Each structure stands twice: as structure tokens, then as C-alpha cells.
Amino acid sequence: MAAKQKYDLAGKRVWVAGHRGMVGSAIIRRLECEDCEVLTVGRDRVDLRDQAGVRGWMAEQKPDAVFLAAATVGGILANDSYPADFIYDNLMIEANVIEAAYREEVEKLLFLGSSCIYPKLVPQPMSEDALLTGPLEPTNQWYAVAKIAGIKLCQAYRRQHGADFISAMPTNLYGPGDNFDLEKSHVIPALLRKAHEAKRTHASTLTVWGTGSPRREFLHVDDAADAMVHLMKTYSGDEHTNVGTGNDIPILELAELVSDVVGFQGRVVTDPSKPDGTPRKLMDASKLLATGWRPKYTLREGLEQTYAWFCENIETARMSA
Ligand SMILES: NC(=O)c1ccc[n+]([C@@H]2O[C@H](COP(=O)([O-])OP(=O)(O)OC[C@H]3O[C@@H](n4cnc5c(N)ncnc54)[C@H](OP(=O)(O)O)[C@@H]3O)[C@@H](O)[C@H]2O)c1
């Protein structure tokens, strides 16, 4: 991994932007092991799309380091239905936070993106240098363009001002705090909820959309947070870093594993009349893994932990649909 330079979080004031989100709250949990002061601010006090609000808060709080985990996030349906929100909100949030971080001489900033930054027909596994080598997936291009702009903002402030701003692109994440609303959720929370309800209603089958053959990669959010802190402490470079496990699994196998974890005894069936999506989406995480970082959760352990969290928090989890 290029350009290593240790950054010590001890004694630092660390702002986690987006602290109520799945990733932000995992970063807060992870920072409990660091000797630093964690700063947070709710959207009710500072809407990060508001430049004056962000500048004022940063000038008052003067963080030393920033994890930028705030974003307007959603699945294909939400991206397709609200393209203006996805591009505007995310561009504004990242431009405001990154510019204010530069003005307030923040020592280190980590910007979070996702695997959707890569072209639709990219060779697998997707390596960092595949960025901007082809057209994006049209349904989430609004979000992807904003996230690519975030990477470029970090690079531009590094080049022009010498700011130590870096970017990390995690694979599909899951874990406590995930969104279990079936209209908005990603595949793991959707399957956990469907299997839970199928068990409760003694249904005989659980249906998976498509053929079940597409392969996807998943990382527990606490492992992702650990990787963010690792990068914050050890990486300083222009290029973004993929954050993943290097392993993927067919969706049908995942559904069977989820059923097992949940205790759903029925059969998992496929519905090939529904679309499959991209056959494979795997991050090339070799750059990160070469630093010695490893995820702690196996997929089964992560699913067990997430299902336990879901059962304990069923009243408050995000699951309106
Ligand atoms: N989830 C995944 O699978 C995944 C995978 C790869 C990368 N990521 C990246 O991780 C980051 C966080 O994702 P997440 O899953 O944690 O999303 P999330 O659960 O929806 O959390 C987003 C956070 O951003 C805050 N936020 C959004 N708009 C804001 C605004 N205008 N002003 C202030 N705060 C605002 C939200 O505040 P409220 O609590 O007030 O709504 C929330 O705390 C994103 O950049 C995403 O691309 C996520």
C-alpha cells in the first residue's frame, strides 16, 4: 500500500459525521477502544447540506480528525425515484464537510463511498484502478457520480493544499442499525426479515428473487469500522482504498444460510421471472489485505450477531414497510 504515515488518534477530537447511521454508529463503537474524544452533531442542529451551518459548527468544535459517514443512502428503487436528492444531498454534504475541514486545518479526514463508483461492466474482482474506466450502472449513477466527486475532492485538496484526506470504498455492509424496511433494504436485512416472518407464520417457503446464482460480497459493519480506523491510522495517499473480504457467495446459498441462522425450517425457492442483476460484484481488497488487516466476523457469525440485534430491537429497528 502506497505512502504509509502513522496517524495517532490518542488525545484527538474526532468528529463522526453521520453518527446515527449504520456505519457511523459502528465507527463510534470502534472508537471506544481509542483514547480519543468523539464529537457528534445531529441533523436537527446542523444539516450538512447547509454550508454556513457546517462551517460554523466546524469553526466552533475544531475537530482534529473527521470520519465522513453521512450521506443520503438507499437501494435501487430509492436511487431511481429520487435522483435529484441522491446527487444534490451527497455533493453538498461532502463539499461542505471537506472544504470546512480544510479551512479548520483538520489533520486527517476519511471519506466513505461505496462499490457503486465502479463501471457497470467492470472486470471482477473490482480493483481501485477500475475507477472511471467505463459507463456507470444507470440506476444509481446519481449516487455514484456524487461519491466519485467525493474521492476527487479528497485528491484535489491533497494536491492543492497538502490536506491529508483519504477515501475508503466498502463493499456491501450489514449489521446492527441496518435498514429492515423491505422497500429500502439491502439483501441481508431483507432476507433476515423475510426469514424471520416466514418462521413466525410457519410459511413453507422463502422466495429469493431471480435465479439465486448472482454472487455478492458482504462485510459486517463492525469489521468495516475497524478497517476505517485502521486506514485513518495507517494510510495516507491519493488513491481510494477498497474495503472488503475478498470472498463472495451466491445469493441462494446466502438465503439458505440466513434461514439456518434464523431457524426457518421451510424451503428456499427461487423466482427466475424476477431480474438477477449483475452476475458478480466482488471488491479486489488485496491492497487493504496486504497491510495485514483482516475481518473478524465470518459471514455466519455476522448473521447470527445481526439477527440477535434485530430480535432485540424489533420495536425500534428501521422497518416501516
Ligand atoms: N450500508 C452499506 O451497505 C454501505 C456500503 C458501502 C458504503 N456505505 C457508505 O457508508 C456511508 C454511511 O452509510 P450508512 O449505511 O451508515 O447510511 P445510513 O444508515 O443511512 O446513515 C446515514 C447517516 O447520514 C446522516 N445524514 C444524511 N443526510 C444528512 C444531512 N443532510 N445532514 C446531517 N446528517 C445527515 C443521517 O442522519 P439521520 O440519522 O439524521 O438520518 C445518518 O446518520 C455512506 O457514505 C455509504 O455510501 C454503506
UniProtKB/TrEMBL annotation:
<feature type="active site" description="Proton donor/acceptor">
    <location>
        <position position="143"/>
    </location>
</feature>
<keyword id="KW-0521">NADP</keyword>
<feature type="binding site">
    <location>
        <position position="216"/>
    </location>
    <ligand>
        <name>substrate</name>
    </ligand>
</feature>
<dbReference type="Pfam" id="PF01370">
    <property type="entry name" value="Epimerase"/>
</dbReference>
<keyword id="KW-0413">Isomerase</keyword>
<keyword id="KW-0560">Oxidoreductase</keyword>
<feature type="site" description="Important for catalytic activity">
    <location>
        <position position="114"/>
    </location>
</feature>
<comment type="similarity">
    <text>Belongs to the NAD(P)-dependent epimerase/dehydratase family. Fucose synthase subfamily.</text>
</comment>
<feature type="site" description="Important for catalytic activity">
    <location>
        <position position="116"/>
    </location>
</feature>
<feature type="binding site">
    <location>
        <begin position="18"/>
        <end position="24"/>
    </location>
    <ligand>
        <name>NADP(+)</name>
    </ligand>
</feature>
<dbReference type="InterPro" id="IPR001509">
    <property type="entry name" value="Epimerase_deHydtase"/>
</dbReference>
<keyword id="KW-0511">Multifunctional enzyme</keyword>
<feature type="binding site">
    <location>
        <position position="209"/>
    </location>
    <ligand>
        <name>substrate</name>
    </ligand>
</feature>
<feature type="domain" description="NAD-dependent epimerase/dehydratase">
    <location>
        <begin position="15"/>
        <end position="244"/>
    </location>
</feature>
<feature type="binding site">
    <location>
        <position position="194"/>
    </location>
    <ligand>
        <name>substrate</name>
    </ligand>
</feature>
<dbReference type="InterPro" id="IPR036291">
    <property type="entry name" value="NAD(P)-bd_dom_sf"/>
</dbReference>
<comment type="function">
    <text>Catalyzes the two-step NADP-dependent conversion of GDP-4-dehydro-6-deoxy-D-mannose to GDP-fucose, involving an epimerase and a reductase reaction.</text>
</comment>
<dbReference type="InterPro" id="IPR028614">
    <property type="entry name" value="GDP_fucose/colitose_synth"/>
</dbReference>
<comment type="pathway">
    <text>Nucleotide-sugar biosynthesis; GDP-L-fucose biosynthesis via de novo pathway; GDP-L-fucose from GDP-alpha-D-mannose: step 2/2.</text>
</comment>
<protein>
    <recommendedName>
        <fullName>GDP-L-fucose synthase</fullName>
        <ecNumber>1.1.1.271</ecNumber>
    </recommendedName>
</protein>
<feature type="binding site">
    <location>
        <begin position="112"/>
        <end position="115"/>
    </location>
    <ligand>
        <name>NADP(+)</name>
    </ligand>
</feature>
<feature type="binding site">
    <location>
        <position position="147"/>
    </location>
    <ligand>
        <name>NADP(+)</name>
    </ligand>
</feature>
<feature type="binding site">
    <location>
        <position position="186"/>
    </location>
    <ligand>
        <name>NADP(+)</name>
    </ligand>
</feature>
<feature type="binding site">
    <location>
        <position position="276"/>
    </location>
    <ligand>
        <name>substrate</name>
    </ligand>
</feature>
<feature type="binding site">
    <location>
        <begin position="170"/>
        <end position="173"/>
    </location>
    <ligand>
        <name>NADP(+)</name>
    </ligand>
</feature>
